[in-house]
Amino acid sequence: MITVSAYLAENPDPSEYEIREALSGNICRCTGYQNIIESVIEAAQKMKAIEPAT
């Protein structure tokens, strides 16, 4: 979660490929990271929705 939080602060609209690259150093025994990737995409969308307008 810390890795994703820092990553989304730098790249608020990542592609699935970019997310996979960012998480490539983390070891997980999940089913191919798919649920994690989907969660990161959802988090990015929610973070964009609450950003103040500039």
Give structural notes:
The model has no long low-confidence stretch (mean pLDDT 86). The protein contains 3 helices and no strands. It has helices at 2-10, 16-23, 34-50. It is mainly alpha-helical and 54 residues long. It is elongated, with a radius of gyration of 11 Å.
- Major sheet: size, sense and barrel closure? none
How much strand content do the residues show? under 5%
Backbone CA Rg: 11 Å
Spell out the helices and strands N to C: HHH
Mean pLDDT: 86
Please count the helical segments: 3
Task: Enumerate the spans where pLDDT stays under 50 for 5 or more consecutive residues.
Answer: none
Structural class: mainly alpha
Broad shape: elongated
Question: Which assembly state applies to the chains in this document?
Answer: single chain
Give the strand tally. 0
What separation lies between the terminal Cα atoms? 27 Å
Portion of residues in helices? Answer: 55-70%
